[in-house]
């Protein structure tokens, strides 16, 4: 048997991290077992489904590194299959037309619930034999009133429900559109899905879907329900309170490797390993090691994972990932110029240890990407570090740097030492901070010798000249 799985998101918004994790688990498990992984867009909610949302889902999956087999399919294109399945069920008397109105059902339900019993549809139309011309009606599946609808869940183990607790649920609305349960089962049957791997919020849907498989005389796939994702505080994730879209994390400067590592670890573990490449996830992921309890989405853990990947990835890769962030912090032309400057790779190596995200790194690299004439000085840093008495030592340092034959940290340090020796009582810290503000605009940067080395001789000297021209006079 060839394993066939699917990820079936609804294109009604962004790609939720819960959906992304479901896709990742499906993809990794299927790839490990040499199976077929499919993407099906469940867009039957025409009022809320949009092309932009579908594009966001597809783009998010691709950004995370997942691919799929065969062509992308859309549930809205499969209406003929859904209608044919319903007609087959009616013809076999495994479903029936129901003319009960919502108000009628509501009144009967209210009376029933008042007795303390659990309501299921009371079967008023089950034996009425309503034909196609009966007027406005829904279609209900006949569900056995005896026995159980059980399955062996690959995560949660033995699962199921008494059939009588489900009732004859609607599979076609009065407007002729199929219900979700009917459509998803028919689609999974048609696509020959062997394993349905989805969130634990679908556990309660499974018994009725099992009844549908049986009514359709269709092979029943194996089910695996994944633990829910909760916030670090243990509460269910909320769109209003938590960041839950893949797009948010991408725009905030998280790497796809980091987000995949974070997501796969929310509900699964492999020994004590904390960091996983996509290839390792694909090779190691197993449903047997998937947890049953809810997984905590800890933002601090994601920061640590992302910084770990920033430390690991080649500077060339980080430079490419950094481009849109530098463009946002400066402009496209400045970012492109910085990207072609070999000094950027050296700067990235200097910033790895202190950057949790690419957004943070771009802010720290902004001084490098800005044209020299566009560099602005932080007023507080100027007031604190540009003392009038430091102008003469700064000019001397400029001259010492001009005379250097090699432009590398050790030679730059020697120029600093020579300048300090010429000015008795001058500390290394005040001179270094004055230079730092002159070349970066702020009082924070990596080591000053390394910073000047990656900035380059020409740009360093231009910025020092510019600072000397702007130096505050003694009051």
Write up this protein.
With 475 residues, this protein is mainly alpha-helical. It has four domains: 78-226, HUPs (Rossmann fold); 246-311, Glutamyl-tRNA Synthetase, domain 2, CATH 1.10.1160.10; 314-370; 379-470, Arc Repressor Mutant, subunit A. The protein has 20 helices and twelve strands. The protein has helices at residues 17-32, 51-64, 79-91, 102-113, 180-190, 206-215, 246-251, 256-265, 278-284, 299-312, 315-329, 332-339, 343-351, 358-369, 379-385, 391-402, 409-422, 428-440, 448-455, 457-470, and strands at 4-7, 36-41, 73-74, 95-98, 138-141, 148-153, 157-162, 170-172, 195-199, 222-226, 229-231, 295-297. It has a three-stranded parallel β-sheet, with helices on one face. Strands 4-5-8 form a three-stranded antiparallel β-sheet. Strand 9, helix 6 and strand 10 form a beta-alpha-beta unit. The model has no long low-confidence stretch (mean pLDDT 95).
Strand order across the largest sheet? 1-2-3
Radius of gyration: 32 Å
Please name the fourth-level CATH homologous superfamily of the largest domain. Answer: HUPs
Biggest sheet descriptor: 3 strands, parallel
Helix content: 40-55%
CATH architecture of the largest domain: 3-Layer(aba) Sandwich
Query: Please, how many helices?
Result: 20
The chain-level mean pLDDT equals 95
CATH class of the largest domain: Alpha Beta
The tally of beta strands, per DSSP, is 12
- Number of separate structural domains: 4
| Unreliable runs | none
Straight-line N-to-C gap: 86 Å
Structural class: mainly alpha
Tell me which oligomeric state these chains represent.
Answer: single chain
Assess the beta-strand content as a share of residues. 5-15%
Principal-axis shape: elongated
**Within the CATH hierarchy, at the fold level, what is the topology of the largest domain?**
Rossmann fold
């Amino acid at each position: 048997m060839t394993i066939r799985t699917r990820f079936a998101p609804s294109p009604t918004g962004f790609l939720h991290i819960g959906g992304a994790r479901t896709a990742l688990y499906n993809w990794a498990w299927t790839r490990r077992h040499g199976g077929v992984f499919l993407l099906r867009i469940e867009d039957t909610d025409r009022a809320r489904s949009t092309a932009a949302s579908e594009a966001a889902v597809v783009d998010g999956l691709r950004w995370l590194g997942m691919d799929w087999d065969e062509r992308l399919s859309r549930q809205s294109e499969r209406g003929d299959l859904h209608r044919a399945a319903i007609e087959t069920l009616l013809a076999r008397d495994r479903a029936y037309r129901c003319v009960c109105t919502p108000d009628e059902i509501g009144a009967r339900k209210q009376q029933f619930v008042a007795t303390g019993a659990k309501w299921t549809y009371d079967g008023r139309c089950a034996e009425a034999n309503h034909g196609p011309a009966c007027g406005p009606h829904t279609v209900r599946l006949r569900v056995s009133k005896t026995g159980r609808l059980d399955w062996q869940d690959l995560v949660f183990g033995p699962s199921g429900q008494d059939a009588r607790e489900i009732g004859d649920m609607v599979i076609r609305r009065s407007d002729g559109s199929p219900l979700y349960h009917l459509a998803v089962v028919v689609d999974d049957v048609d696509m020959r899905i062997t394993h349905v791997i989805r969130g634990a919020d679908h556990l309660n849907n499974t018994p009725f879907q099992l009844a549908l498989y049986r009514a359709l005389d269709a092979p029943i796939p194996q089910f695996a329900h994944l633990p829910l994702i909760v916030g670090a505080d243990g509460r269910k994730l909320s769109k209003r309170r938590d960041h839950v879209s893949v797009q948010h994390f991408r725009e905030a400067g998280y790497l796809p490797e980091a987000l995949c590592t974070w997501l796969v670890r929310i509900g699964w573990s492999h020994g004590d390993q904390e960091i996983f490449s996509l290839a390792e996830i694909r090779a190691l992921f197993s449903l047997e090691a998937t947890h049953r309890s809810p997984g905590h989405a800890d933002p601090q853990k994601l920061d640590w994972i992302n910084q770990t990947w920033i430390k690991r990835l080649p500077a060339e890769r980080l430079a490419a990932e950094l481009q849109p962030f530098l463009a946002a912090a400066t402009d496209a032309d400045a970012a492109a110029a910085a990207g072609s400057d070999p000094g950027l790779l050296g700067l990235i190596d200097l910033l790895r240890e202190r950057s949790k995200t690419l957004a943070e790194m771009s802010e720290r690299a902004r001084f490098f990407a800005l044209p020299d004439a566009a560099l602005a000085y932080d007023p507080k840093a100027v007031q604190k570090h540009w003392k009038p008495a430091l102008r003469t030592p700064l000019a001397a340092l400029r001259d010492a740097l001009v005379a250097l034959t090699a432009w590398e940290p050790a030679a730059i340090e020697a120029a600093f030492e020579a300048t300090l020796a010429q000015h008795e009582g001058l500390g290394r810290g005040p001179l270094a901070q004055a230079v730092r503000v002159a070349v970066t605009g702020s009082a924070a940067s990596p080591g000053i010798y390394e910073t000047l080395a990656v900035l380059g001789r020409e740009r360093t000297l231009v910025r020092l000249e510019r600072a000397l021209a702007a130096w505050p006079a003694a009051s």
